[in-house]
């Protein structure tokens, strides 16, 4: 006969009997009514703790981050802009230019391609180097000194030298965008020819400067004589001069490439003429540019098409619209204490993130009306600093309005205000004025 298992001479308890006894004991102590009575309290505690969590929309806004849907829409817009800058031989471009079949639906690639307007595609051109391509067009002079030096140089030119002055303008009239250019061609100091025109409104003044310089150079070549010594292009935009001397930019690339060909063929010189400094040719070109923009007369060439920089601005506007649409949908669902601040939303770093962490915590908690009525360590440290600093004492709302109901940063009445508190800008000034020792001491431990 086998003995029962033992533990040091003692018999082990029967497991089944122990489990049965504990079940009976629990059933006799805890009734079903107790379970029903305790579960609502547990759910209520969970709900209350959940209610203290900040909404995702406010967290993203305070951090300057986009939501998931907004980030995806921004990626689609960036990809659409990238498709516009691809070379014509790129495989994706060939797929886009292939005509779709009648029974096919628009693919994701074609839908993205339709987000921004079409523009002349840049080509893969060889690098361009000309004399002075690495020299600063200003030569280290100020506008006043450069204008005086230019007038002295231009006044001693003979009639066998042609100078081409070009300028551009970008303005708004009755809500419509106007972009135009103008040029004036001089033989010596005598005005020979003038011209002006407009380009597509989906562009910028940089494009008009490049196109105007090309049009002026072409006009100068029409009156070129065998006895003429040299042609000079006088441009007031240093960025355009860099692209004329060296590599062309993607926007209005065709204009720069044509200028490169003519500059290398006819040994054309390029000189900086500071704008709005009393230079005769530059002032004449500026007036012609205003006339061309207001008349709105465009040539039948690629200047009538949008430019890469213009559709880039359109893409940025689409991204801003996507961001504002998401914020307008989420804003009504936020709490009234947060909405009364009337905060905007942009995917950039908010300025309040420069504040110390404890101060920033109080500011963010105030927006959500979560500040308890007690003074924190950050407020006490700020009051201590402001005692010997009249600037901080004047800017700090805690020391200027010391009350029994002062909760950290704001008085109690200010937290119940209907409009955005006027003290927000003072917090940024206080954060900049705080000594580095205090900023380090207020940082939370890692």
From TrEMBL:
<dbReference type="GO" id="GO:0004523">
    <property type="term" value="F:RNA-DNA hybrid ribonuclease activity"/>
</dbReference>
<dbReference type="InterPro" id="IPR036397">
    <property type="entry name" value="RNaseH_sf"/>
</dbReference>
<protein>
    <recommendedName>
        <fullName>RNase H type-1 domain-containing protein</fullName>
    </recommendedName>
</protein>
<dbReference type="GO" id="GO:0003676">
    <property type="term" value="F:nucleic acid binding"/>
</dbReference>
<feature type="domain" description="RNase H type-1">
    <location>
        <begin position="165"/>
        <end position="294"/>
    </location>
</feature>
<dbReference type="InterPro" id="IPR002156">
    <property type="entry name" value="RNaseH_domain"/>
</dbReference>
<dbReference type="InterPro" id="IPR012337">
    <property type="entry name" value="RNaseH-like_sf"/>
</dbReference>
<dbReference type="Pfam" id="PF00075">
    <property type="entry name" value="RNase_H"/>
</dbReference>
């Amino acid at each position: 006969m086998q003995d029962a298992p033992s533990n040091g001479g003692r018999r082990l308890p029967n497991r089944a009997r122990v489990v049965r006894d504990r079940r009976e004991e629990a059933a006799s102590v805890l009734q079903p009514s107790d379970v029903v009575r305790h579960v609502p309290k547990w759910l209520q505690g969970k709900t209350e703790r959940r209610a203290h969590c900040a909404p995702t929309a406010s967290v993203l806004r305070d951090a300057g981050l986009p939501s998931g849907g907004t980030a995806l829409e921004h990626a689609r817009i960036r990809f659409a802009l990238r498709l516009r800058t691809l070379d014509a031989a790129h495989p994706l471009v060939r797929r886009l230019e292939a005509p779709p079949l009648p029974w096919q639906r628009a693919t994701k690639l074609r839908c993205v391609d339709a987000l921004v307007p079409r523009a002349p595609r840049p080509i893969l051109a060889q690098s361009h180097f000309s004399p002075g391509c690495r020299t600063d067009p200003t030569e280290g002079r100020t506008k006043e000194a450069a204008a005086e030096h230019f007038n002295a140089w231009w006044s001693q030119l003979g009639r066998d030298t042609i100078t081409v002055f070009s300028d551009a303008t970008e303005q708004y009239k009755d809500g419509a965008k106007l972009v135009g250019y103008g040029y004036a061609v001089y033989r010596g100091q005598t005005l020979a020819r003038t011209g002006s025109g407009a380009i597509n409104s989906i562009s910028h003044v940089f494009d008009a400067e490049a196109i105007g310089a090309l049009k002026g150079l072409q006009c100068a070549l029409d009156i070129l004589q065998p006895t003429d010594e040299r042609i000079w292009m006088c441009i007031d935009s240093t960025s355009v001069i860099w692209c004329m001397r060296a590599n062309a930019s993607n926007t209005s690339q065709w204009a720069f490439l044509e200028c490169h060909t003519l500059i290398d063929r006819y040994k054309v010189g390029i000189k900086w003429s500071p704008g709005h400094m009393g230079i005769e040719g530059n002032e004449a070109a500026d007036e012609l540019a205003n006339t061309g923009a207001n008349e709105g007369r465009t040539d039948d060439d690629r200047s009538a098409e949008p430019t890469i920089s213009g559709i880039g601005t359109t893409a940025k506007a689409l991204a801003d619209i996507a961001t504002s649409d998401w914020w307008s949908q989420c804003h009504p669902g936020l709490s009234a204490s947060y909405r009364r601040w009337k905060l905007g939303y942009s995917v950039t770093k908010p300025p309040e993130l420069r504040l110390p962490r404890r101060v920033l915590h109080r500011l963010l908690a105030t927006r959500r009306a979560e500040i308890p009525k007690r003074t924190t360590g950050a407020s006490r440290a700020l009051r201590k600093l402001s005692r010997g600093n009249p600037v901080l004492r004047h800017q700090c709302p805690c020391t200027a309005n010391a009350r029994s109901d002062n909760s950290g940063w704001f008085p109690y009445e200010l937290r119940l205000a209907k409009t955005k508190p006027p003290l927000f800008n003072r917090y940024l000034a206080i954060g900049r004025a705080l000594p580095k020792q205090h900023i380090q001491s207020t940082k939370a431990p890692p």
